[in-house]
Each structure stands twice: as structure tokens, then as C-alpha cells.
Amino acid sequence: MAVTATYTIYAVDIGGTLLHGITQQALNTGTEVQGEISSGEVAPRFQSITAQKPQAQFTTLEVAAALSACGTMGMNIDGTDVLLFAQKRAAGGTFASGSVHRKYTLQHGILVPRTLSCDHQGNAQLSYEAIVTYDGENDPIVIAVAQALVAFSGTVARYSLGAVSVGGKTLAQVRNVSIDFGLTVESEGADSDVWDTEATIREVRPKITVTVTDLSADSLALLGASGAASIQFRKRADGGTFAESGHLTITATGGLAYFDSPIDGSGSDSAQATIVCEPKYDGTNAPLVVA
Fold it and tell me: What domain range includes position 163?
């Protein structure tokens, strides 16, 4: 059969904030099928769907806008929809116009940031995951056809690496930073319902991993150092280098920093050291704070 329609990804709407710079998105139904084999046979005679645990993932370059809409501790999806789109292509052109696209609405559950990472001279990328539950009325993922796309009217922003300090120590020659927001989310159901009805955060254990080529960063000491952490992401200037303002900083008021690897190298490449910081709760603020 001939190809009659193809689609690509589009921006993602989280609670009314339309995020461009989407580099990846996916929806998964998390379908679990039960098909027991019995009576000495080698294949099941009966099958049924016992559970679905839908999830959505997306990655964006619009780091500041995303964290403003859904911060380091996540966002409740309950009347604050998350919308994903499939943008229809136009045969002989680029994209089709009008109400010909597809929309996927997540109406209940929780949206959490997963990782924020950036390489030397690269653009920071932030990934999210939505754990989707049942609101008692609508399907966890509502698929609508013949839809118009939400128009984008904002500005585009990109961010790269800036100053980094962990354990109260400023680091030099940083090559890569990766922040794992460390949110453990569990969803629960009952009464043999196929869809869970509640999702909650059970643990928050963030981890910051920094790779440097300055092996003299041994002021941390082998057994580590306790103190604040600060990771700056410098805002780029469209048509230039870096903007004079608008940079993004993620801080931790306290935590333990230590060497994961004091030296790692091969061949003639510059050796690297890997430093990990595990922020802690100070009794007031979230372990990671966006400024």
C-alpha cells in the first residue's frame, strides 16, 4: 500500500506554556497482558489486559521556560493538561495547514523533570516524564484527530555551560554537567482496575555529576566535601555569543560532593575527573532550587 499520511513531533504544552525546542517525545501505554499457560500446553488459550501504566517523555532545549512551568519538584496534572501533538506533513511541501493534526491530552497524574545535561559548547537539554493516571471519567490519554496546532508566539532561548561549584568549591575546566533530579514516583490503583488513579512522589534524591579536565580539583579531598552547589547555564544571544542577562542557575543549599573518578583517560586524550554532588534537604527549601 502507498504512503498516504506521515507525521512528525511538535511543541509540547504544559499547563498553558507552549515549549518549543522539542528534540524528542514519546507516549507509551505500559500495557500488561496476562496469558497463563496451563494443563501442560506450550501456549496460552486465554489472554486479557490486566493493567496499563501510561507514560509520556519529552526533551526540550527551552530549559528556563520549562522549569518555570514545571520546577524541580514536578507538577500535578489535574486540570492542568499536558498536550502533545503529531504534526501532519504535506505531500509535495512541508506541513499541512488547518485542523488536520493529532492531539494527545494527558489530564491526570504527575509531570516530573528527569535530567538536565550540557556539554562544553553544547546546548543544555532537559528531559521530562509524565506518569499518567485515571481521573475516573476520561481515558488517561485522550487522542483527538482533526486538530489545529497551538500557535507559538514566544521567544526562542538556548543555554550552555557557565560557572560550576560543588561542595562549596569552584570547579575549573568543566566539560560536562548532568543533573539527575532524583524523583521517585509511584502510581497506585485498587479493585483490579486497569488504570491507576493516584501518582505521588516517594523520594527526592538528586545527583549532580560534573566532568572536568582539571585534575588538580583535589581541594575536595578524596573523602569529599560538604557545602553548597551552584550550576549556571549561560543564556546564548541569537546572532551573537552570550546574552548579558537572563542566565539560569540551579542551586543546592547543602550537600556532599566527592570524587567518583579522580582520573579517567585513554590514549592521547586529556584525562578527566568525575565529581558527584548529592544535595540534601535543609528543612526549608527543595534540594534543588532554580534561580
Answer: 7-30+51-290
The verdict on residue 37 lying in a domain is: no
Each residue's pLDDT tens digit, 148-176: 999 988 789 999 999 999 887 889 999 99
Half-sphere exposure of 283 (CA within 13 A, CB side): 0
User: Could you give the CA distance from residue 117 to residue 197 in angstroms, rounded to a whole number?
Assistant: 32
Cα–Cα distance, 5 to 11 (Å, whole number): 20
- Total count of domains within the chain: 1
The grid cell for 27 is 507516549
Q: Decide: pTM greater than 0.85.
A: yes
Using CA atoms, how far apart are residues 267 and 46, in angstroms rounded to an integer? 58
